[in-house]
Amino acid sequence: SGSVIHAMHHEQDMMRMGALRKKLPITYLTMMAGTLAIAGIPFFSGFFSKDEILWKAFSSPLGGGVFWALGFLTAGLTSFYMFRMMYLTFHGNSRVDSHLQSHLHESPWSMTGPLMILAVLSIFGGFFGVPHALHFLPNGMELYFHDFFAKLPGEAHGSVDTEIMLMILSVVLALFGWFWARRMYSGSLEAARRLSASWRTLYDLSLNKWYVDEIYQALIVTPGRLLSTHLLWQAFDKNVIDRSVNGSGVISRGAGGLIRGLQDGVMQTYALIFAIGTLTVIWYIF
Fold first, then answer.
1. Is-above-0.85 flag for pTM?
2. Interior CA angle at 139 toward 137 and 140, to 5°?
3. Are residues 33 and 117 in the same domain?
4. Final residue of a structural domain among 207, 235, 260
5. Which of 165, 180, 133, 152 is nearest to 68 (CA)?
């Protein structure tokens, strides 16, 4: 994403992009590798980790099917939104502003170099931790780390056939998310506009991020500001903290004025102070 934003001169709205794959070939290929991994397409790295997580959730005695269903639906949405990003950014018709068209360029090697390293890991990194259900594939790390990890008591177990079935379901869902994103966003976006118009309520809900920011503002930010303004600042800060600081200054100023009044240069005042001091010492001794 940072490479695209750099090439687009800080533009971040995908609706102002499109058809960038020829202008940014390295960025496109590396982002596609990452997208395939995050979506859980076999046999990219995310495929192994995602299905291992889903299987552990399904076979766990705590939650079981509920946590698996939540993760399963989230994985489907992840696939759809990742490919939506790819099609809106790199495919379809160009929606780039005309003044940017001639300035589009691939990012420097300082950005594309790390992207290529991450892309290689996205493609091959999953083979360092292949699930037991796919025992026909070599596991690059299991034998190496075998002596480092103890088997936990109560560890979840389940049928290998069930794990493979759930794995197939998640792959089908990921491919469906890919297909749906391609259908909606690879061309003129007219299909996406028609769908958003027919499901306006859900579209507005999604567009406004489920109103999480507004809820957060109403339940946390606004009450926190009122509490800080009226209680912590006006009641405590001004009346306690400020008066304590200002009060110490008033006391110091008053004490200084009193002492300054005793040193007025009049001989009678000094004699009186001397006499009072002498009588005080005599009274204390006797």
1. no
2. 130
3. yes
4. 207
5. 165
